[in-house]
Write a structure and sequence with these properties.
- The complex is a heterodimer.
- By secondary structure, chain A is α+β, with helices and mostly antiparallel strands.
- In chain A, strands 6-7-8-3-9-10 form a six-stranded mixed sheet, sandwiched between helices.
- In chain A, strand 4 and strand 5 form a beta hairpin.
- In chain A, helix 2 runs parallel beside helix 4 and helix 3 packs across helix 4.
- By secondary structure, chain B is mostly helical.
- Helix content of chain B is 76%, strand content 0%.
- Classes of the chains: A alpha+beta, B mainly alpha.
């Protein structure tokens, strides 16, 4: 029903291109893990390796303590929910969802009972006799989820499952996914390039870039205390503070999130002029330019009602400063 | 403009169907020659054809060759398409090209080639030899139709089935074939039709048992007769029934 996963020294190459460079990760049983990164970072390759669709060039995968590195997909305790749903168009929803159990030799009665149970879980029991083409995108999504969960996998792999949905539906499906994961307790490994999606569903976020893991942690960890500059930038907007005059040059840089700049705080940033601002509902996004020698520009999120006039010069302060090593 | 459209419509259908209409009309001709003026109607030529044992024998032979060779061509074409769409092999493109190439070669050349090969192997002309010839001409057709019908959609569904525990055979029988049903039926019935109509290969590769086109040809040698029209009309009726059946069962758009 659920199992922990460990990846040890996973490397994978496509020809001369190194898609994954020495990946070492562990996921706890029942954890909702999100692999997050820009396209081409290797997150989908890693998911395919977990599902058994790719055999890693080197390294080992253990699921529930058992070595799965060379086990084909059909014999793994994993199922995948594919990006385009990959439903069987010629079968009813009940048969789609029951397919995995049919392959495991369960009786028709037993698998129909289980299929109905899963369809009820995703709220589509009344459509059990319909064919996939009669459904909307979001509904197909749910059927794909029900089908993948019907065989009670230890680990469910989700390959950008919400990519094809519009924003509102995506937010709604994120909440549903999270709720269903809580209910079934299966380990979920979810791939996405959307950091908001990652933050809204993940117990553990793994930030990837160019085939390597940049950062691992809870949403709060990777947002508030990122380990690398890439991770910090990928999780949200970031202001870079100029090096303090007179201090020796280092290979670190101080950064601050837009919401941590204000008219009061831990560290003074000097005077700055408001160049323009835009209203975002819960905050104003303000562009400031420092009046110091460096003319640095900052983006700051000010609470509604506290925004100065455009052109006004005010002192800025920063709090929750993140100190990171520069890439070079 | 609108009237011009209607005139064009009538003209094009007349052009296509006039020969068939004339054929069917003069199968009901009372006198001995299927030429104007029409002096029927009578069904005597149909009675004569149906009582003609060698003609009925040829009809059965044709049906046997057509349905069997089409089934073999379909199976081979399906396997080739399934393999080449799924796996990238060295020379995949070349293999695809070679599989489709026989479509560009004239039936006469294929027939001559097969005749030479069979002679050298000591295989006598027969319905089986003709069947082999028809597989040769229909395999490229089946392959092309099925290969074109296998898209990413199909590949993803197959991958999902494997992920859910299906063996390769289960993938083929429970997923690939049902998803390709319209293409499979289209390829099969087109192959049946092409084999049913085929003359040159059948003429060169049969001897005692002949197919219908060969029988009709030998009948024509003794001159025109409304009996030929009658058998032609029967063949036409069979083809058109198959087509209508196919149209209402397979190609009808599902209501969505």
């Amino acid at each position: 029903m659920t199992a922990d996963v460990s990846l040890k020294s996973i490397q994978h190459s496509f020809g001369t291109f190194q898609a994954l460079k020495d990946i070492n990760l562990t996921f706890d049983a029942g954890e909702f893990v999100v692999l997050l990164g820009p396209s081409g970072c290797g997150k989908s390759t890693l998911l395919a390796i977990l599902g058994g669709f790719l055999t890693p060039t080197s390294g080992h995968i253990k699921i529930g303590g058992q070595d799965m590195s060379r086990v084909p997909p059909k014999d793994r305790p994993t199922t995948t929910m594919f990006q385009d749903y990959a439903l069987f168009p010629h079968m009813s929803l009940r048969k789609n969802v029951g397919f995995g159990l049919q392959m495991r030799g369960q009786s028709k009665k037993e698998r129909n009972r289980r299929a109905d149970e899963m369809l009820e879980l995703v709220g589509l029991l009344d459509k059990a006799n319909h064919k996939p083409h009669e459904l909307s995108g979001g509904q197909r999504q749910r059927v794909a989820l029900a089908r993948a969960l019907a065989v009670s996998p230890d680990v469910l792999l989700l390959d950008e499952p919400l990519g094809a949905l519009d924003l509102k539906l995506r937010r709604q499906m994120q909440d549903e996914l999270k709720a269903i994961q809580r209910e079934v307790g299966t380990t979920f490994v979810h791939v996405t390039h959307d950091q908001e999606e990652a933050m809204s569903i993940a117990d553990k976020i793994i930030v990837m870039n160019q085939g390597s893991v940049e950062d691992v942690g809870t949403a709060e960890d990777v947002y508030m205390r990122p380990k690398t500059l890439f991770s910090a930038n990928f999780m949200g907007e970031l202001n870079t503070l100029p090096p303090t005059q007179g201090e020796p040059a280092t290979n670190t840089v101080n950064c601050v999130r837009p919401e941590n700049i204000g008219q009061a705080g831990d560290v003074s940033m000097g005077q700055a002029v408001l160049e323009n601002s835009a209203f975002f509902g819960t905050y104003h996004r303000c562009h400031f330019r420092s009046t110091g020698n460096d003319k640095t520009s900052y983006i700051a999120n000010f609470p509604v009602g506290t925004v100065p006039q455009v052109g006004q010069e005010i002192p800025l302060f920063a709090s929750n400063i993140i100190t990171l090593e520069t890439d070079t | 403009m609108r009237r011009l459209g209607w005139i064009y419509l009538i003209a094009i259908f007349t052009f296509i169907f006039l020969p068939v209409i004339v054929l069917v009309l003069f199968s009901f001709q009372d006198s001995r020659l299927p030429v104007p003026p029409f002096d029927g109607p009578t069904l005597k030529w149909y009675v004569q054809v149906i009582n003609d044992r060698s003609m009925m024998e040829a009809l059965r032979n044709s049906a046997f060759v057509a349905f069997t060779s089409a089934a073999i061509a379909l199976l081979l074409g399906f396997l080739a398409a399934q393999g080449l769409s799924r796996v990238i092999l060295p020379g995949s493109v070349l293999m695809r090209g070679l599989l489709i190439a026989p479509m560009t070669v004239s039936y006469l050349i294929i027939a001559l080639g097969l005749l030479t090969v069979f002679n050298n192997l000591g295989i006598r002309p027969s319905l089986w030899a003709t069947g082999v010839g028809h597989v040769v001409i229909n395999l490229p057709l089946c392959f092309a139709i099925l290969f074109a019908a296998m898209g990413d959609h199909q590949k993803n569904a197959e991958r999902a089935a494997r992920d859910l525990g299906a063996s390769e055979l289960q993938v083929v029988f429970l997923i690939s074939a049902p998803m390709l049903k319209p293409a499979l039926l289209a390829a099969y019935f087109l192959s049946v039709t092409f084999s049913w109509d085929e003359f040159i290969i059948a003429f060169l590769l049969t001897r005692f048992d002949v197919t219908l086109p060969v029988e009709i040809w030998s009948m024509l040698r003794s001159g025109l007769s409304p009996a030929t029209n009658a058998i032609g009309s029967i063949v036409f009726l069979v083809s058109i029934s198959l087509l209508v059946l196919l149209e209402i069962t397979v190609f009808r758009k599902p209501k969505s």
